[in-house]
């Protein structure tokens, strides 16, 4: 109703200072809402990227099958099973699975790997290491090795090995020097140090080594197949569903990263809950502020409301005038608050460049539209009580002849 | 002359028990179309009460009220709101104009609220009425910046906006000096003469009452003369 809108805007512009304060109050609420959204969203992003950004999102491990037990006919048997030290469980048809998995939507990279234990020997020094064979050309598919190199290159040629900085320091190895790697199965080979990395992860830096897949095949006597397939997704949160899909497609036991990450998920969940809680309070503050301001205005304008009613304005018209005021305040405060929030978030580094010690604000997660929508809805709800009070004004007592 | 409105056996009692005030006690009154009547009576005699009941802003405790053939006692709020808008104009003593609006915006309100917007026709009629009230130079003035007499003339123009059959004025000149009061009354008399609009005007002023062709006197809750 155009005319009710005109009267509502006139009421708002008639007391400019009061309206400005009210809009500012709403804007601060919206600002807090947006700030909290950006902080909680950014924090979750930050924590996830620090904890699982660099690990496999869905992993398929070869199952260690226990040997069959032969039970003597008619007799009880006590079997002590010792796992073969050299026996490796394998995903024999890895070559067939990889292209299939790569075609699953949301899969960014697939890395077939051979993993095992070994000893690194240089002169008299020996270090126990965990060996991972990566397909040359896919060195950075999961762990961003390329990004962590401090010396040399992550390219894994034949006869090349990559070490963490801690391990290289422990063995006083320098780029281009050779080192002897012996697998737990006893196969040994001599490799050249092609690169040194620093991932920040103590385990990987101190006891992990990377070799090319062909080298790993020789070391672990696996002419074909792999022991593990690691899969990286575009969306971390899609791990559960994508794992199910891969399982259905290949029949392999695809495990999402969320398995075993319950504590992390709980922590993130609690953090999100805190965010909702604070945001709800911001909204409640807005609703209370708008309601009380409009109720006051209703009271102050009683004589006018009485005149309008006497002149033939219906109750619905009066309600519309006050609800429109609420909606306008919500919209103005929402837009203003969203603009303030955006401007306040601009100086924070983008999500790819979070620096330790600063708040990991994510300007893209400000929920601006949601903040404005909820504020307008909240302000409309807040204006219903004052609007009804206004519509109930008795013209006779209000005009007070 | 045909009767515009007829009230009979009107009772209005405020409060109950100790605080009970019986203001109207079986009052009957008929106003013919085109009449210009003064409503007289001592303070507290129920003039304002009668006007608000006639203006459908308040229901009587009992009694009948018919205007233009409609039973206005039985009608609901929605119907009465529409009826008021179309058929009854008001001029009050205080609190007459909407303070955040100009003279013209005040005048066109009764039409705009019905049509949902301020049409060009409505504005033209509002302007014409203001000119007629001698307020040509005050059309777009904020209503709060008008003098008392100017405010009451704007109120009269607004009361006439929807061409109502009846205009109820409760001490319209009570706040004005003699000259302004006479000016407002002369304009009312002119409208009554030219357009045949019925006026019922409460006043304490014998001179003002003298400008009306009929005097209705209330006392003891009844019309006494
Ligand atoms: N809402 C109300 N509640 C209780 N009593 C009321 C109410 N309205 C009016 N009265 C009483 O009714 C009586 C008549 O009041 P009313 O205002 O109609 O008188 P009036 O003739 O207009 O007086 P005045 O000339 O002073 O304006 C008064 O005694 C007043 O106190
Ligand atoms: Mg009175």
Automatic annotation (TrEMBL), chain A:
GO biological process terms on file: lipoprotein localization to outer membrane
Q: Where is it mainly found?
A: membrane
Q: Where is the MacB-like periplasmic core domain?
A: 19-248
Residue intervals passing through the bilayer: 21-44, 276-296, 317-345, 365-385
What are the UniProt keywords, alphabetically? Cell membrane, Lipoprotein, Membrane, Transmembrane, Transmembrane helix
Q: What cellular component GO annotations does this protein have?
A: plasma membrane protein complex
Which InterPro entries did the record assign? ABC3_permease_C, Lipoprotein-release_system, MacB_PCD
- Signal peptide position in this chain? none
- Reading the lineage from the top rank, the first entry is Bacteria
Q: Which family does it belong to?
A: Belongs to the ABC-4 integral membrane protein family. LolC/E subfamily.
Q: What is this protein called?
A: Lipoprotein-releasing system permease protein
Taxonomic lineage:
Bacteria, Pseudomonadati, Pseudomonadota, Alphaproteobacteria, Rhodobacterales
TrEMBL record, chain B:
- Is Zinc-finger one of the keywords UniProt gives this record? no
Is the Kinase keyword given for this protein?
Answer: no
Q: What GO molecular function terms would the record report?
A: ATP binding; ATP hydrolysis activity; transmembrane transporter activity
Keywords assigned by UniProt, alphabetized: ATP-binding, Cell inner membrane, Cell membrane, Lipoprotein, Membrane, Nucleotide-binding, Transport
GO CC, alphabetical: membrane protein complex; plasma membrane
What are the ABC transporter domain coordinates in residue numbering?
Answer: 5-224
The record's annotation in InterPro entries points to: AAA+_ATPase, ABC_transporter-like_ATP-bd, ABC_transporter-like_CS, ABC_transpr_LolD-like, MacB-like_ATP-bd, P-loop_NTPase
User: Matching PANTHER family, A to Z?
Assistant: IMPORT ATP-BINDING PROTEIN (PTHR24220), LIPOPROTEIN-RELEASING SYSTEM ATP-BINDING PROTEIN LOLD (PTHR24220:SF689)
Family designation: Belongs to the ABC transporter superfamily. Macrolide exporter (TC 3.A.1.122) family.
* Full protein name: Lipoprotein-releasing system ATP-binding protein
Q: What organism is this sequence from?
A: Roseicyclus mahoneyensis
